[in-house]
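Figure 2 data, in text form.
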Amino acid sequence: MKLFRHGPVGQERAGALDAQGRRRDLSLLVPDLTPDWLSPQKLQALAAVDLTRLPLVADDARIGVPVAGIRQFLAIGLNYRKHAEEAGLELPVEPVMFTKALTSLAGPDDAVALPEGSVQGDWEIELGIVIGTQAQRVPVQAALSHVAGYVLANDVSERDWQIKRGGQWGKGKSFDGFGPVGPWLVTTDELPDPQRIELRLEVNGELRQASSTADMIFGAAEIVSYLSQFMTLLPGDLIITGTPAGVGLGMKPQQFLKRGDVMTLSGGVLGTQRQQVI
């Protein structure tokens, strides 16, 4: 299934795409898509619903973050081989983890506001993992059984705050709106192999990133297993898994976002995003 949430900020309701790709309103059956609805049993129940009997969502409806009540927004850095090369860094031997503030979450087409004084705003298209059942010290072989589905994400970054202000990376990653996610959650029955997803990002129509999740150093199963060794992953937790080569920081000369720019992201089955920088 492809599940989404629609409506104004703070008033989103559950929805799903029908077999023809039309957006249907699920709110008569599911008030909102919360972590409680991410268990295999409840997702199977939703899959059995005849979506054609439900009302259509207006074409101009805002699309929000696909899951409400996300508890943790975790991120993996330096996880694509070619991205490590463009950064001039050695491949990590273990996943590099950081966090983004929950207040950075945004809908896939919401505007991205650069903070006052921003000089190095950057883009990062990523595959996101949404946890469906609690995972604690799980082996790699069983890790994906704890995943509800996958999302497209943009790990918007302010490099000056990330690199030059001291401290953790999250300082440059957590501004409001710096975590666009969606448009929908693709459940694992529809996407059994997360390591074959094509990712593309354009800025003002010019291609910046074009890669595949096959280039990831640590795949989705390895990431879920690794994180679960030292923290309990809970239903609704979101993990973004690193970005391919082509970020502004790695370009020669470097290029960064300015107000008025438009970022367009495509992740195949994961859908598309479009954000204007303001």
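Caption note: Residues 199 and 228 are 26 Å apart (CA to CA).
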